[in-house]
Specification:
By secondary structure, the chain is α/β, with parallel strands linked by helices. 36% of the residues lie in helices and 15% in strands. Strand 1 (11-17) and strand 2 (26-32) form a beta hairpin. The longest helix is centred in the last third of the chain and has 22 residues, at 130-151. It is found in: Cytoplasm.
Amino acid sequence: MLLNLLDVKWETGTDEAGRGCLAGPVTAAAVILPKNFENSVINDSKQLSEQTRNLLRPIIETESVCYGVVHVFPEEIDKINILNASIIGMHRAIEKLKVLPEHIIVDGNKFKPYKQIPHKCVIKGDSKYMSIAAASILAKTYRDAYMESIHEEFPMYNWKKNKGYPTKEHREAIKKYGITKYHRRSFRLLPEQLTLDL
């Protein structure tokens, strides 16, 4: 049973998707749900099928008080590192909310203060709090849709299926075709990185 709001009117949950990928953005989302919001299906996006996530996305978008989703692209990830990119992504997603939250709950154990708003980091928060779970679903579905759209440009990496994660197939394609503008150059793209011509 996922928990709802703490004792504040506007609490946002925030989460990101794609942190461990070799290609594509890290995508962050923030969601404020109504106090009385109930949905027995919403859970950590990793626990749900792609079909279920895609069905839940419009429900979250329609029934939330407000939400924000942003991509942080590889060029910026390479400059500031993936942890900072994830946190900046979450800040930007919160910035897009139409309502300024009174409290922020964050999935994971790392965050930087945003506008003096109190925040709480929750390990595995996406399986404990409804608003973090909703944010995880939006981040994942928006990111997946983006990876599917760039798949058409470089089908040999099969991003439609692997979404940029370091699968054996993805690494084999990097070895064979090299890297694209969508790859994160600061990441260990191949186990024998030295052989990769950047």
